[in-house]
Amino acid sequence: MTLQISDADGVRTVTLDRPEALNAFNEALYDATTVALREADADPSVAVVLLTGAGRAFSAGNDLNEMAARVTDPDFQPGEHGFPGLMEALLELRKPLVCAVNGLAVGIGTTILGYADLVFMSTTARLKCPFTSLGVAPEAASSYLLPQLMGRQNAAWLLMSSEWVSATDAQRMGIAWKLCEPDQLLDEARTHAAVLASRPISSLMAVKETIVEPTRDEVKAAIAREYAKFEVLLGSAANADALAAFADRGQA
């Protein structure tokens, strides 16, 4: 099982559940999360979606073993929905998305926050976008969404440096709304999610639509630009060297 799903007070909590892999997204987790978001969107009893992670990570990003297999294994089988399906589900989600970042958030673990309506972050959590250290391009429309959310310079540092960003700096930059002590994170996120869920779902959806609709085409265009760059860079010398170094560390 790659997800835990529970409902309470109109809030559907979706917990990424690959703790042994720090909740890294493989094809199975992309598929399961895509389905979970679509089902929550369609369920009239769900008003708000709360996304968090099991264990010490929110998500360690893309599963680099699968990334390497995508380049080197001619028999690699992508998932039914995969990364593109998750992007579509996030962009089309009509209900508020609350993220509770419980620990390490790398790559997609960070860029997914660009789709959140509220982000709660543990004081011990950290963010990283390791695109340049992997020799690849941004993803998830982060090249568009993060400058909109954080300002160009904050987004440039996050997307270009491949350095860790602390919870305090994440809040200062504008990507985290509230910081919480680790043992209070879920309670705080659920309390705020329940406040939203107490409002009429039709009104919540109308507010979200008016926020998202003006930028929907720009997000889709950003994803297309990033795909084009990613396709060129995936498997390049810099990317191959980075993945080989990762594999070597895993075998050490």
From TrEMBL:
The keyword Metal-binding does not apply. This is Enoyl-CoA hydratase. CDD domains: crotonase-like. It comes from the Bacteria. Keywords: Isomerase, Peroxisome. InterPro entries: ClpP/crotonase-like_dom_sf, ECH/Chromodomain_protein, Enoyl-CoA_hydra/iso. Pfam families: ECH_1. GO terms for molecular function: delta(3)-delta(2)-enoyl-CoA isomerase activity. Its main location: other. It is found in: Peroxisome.
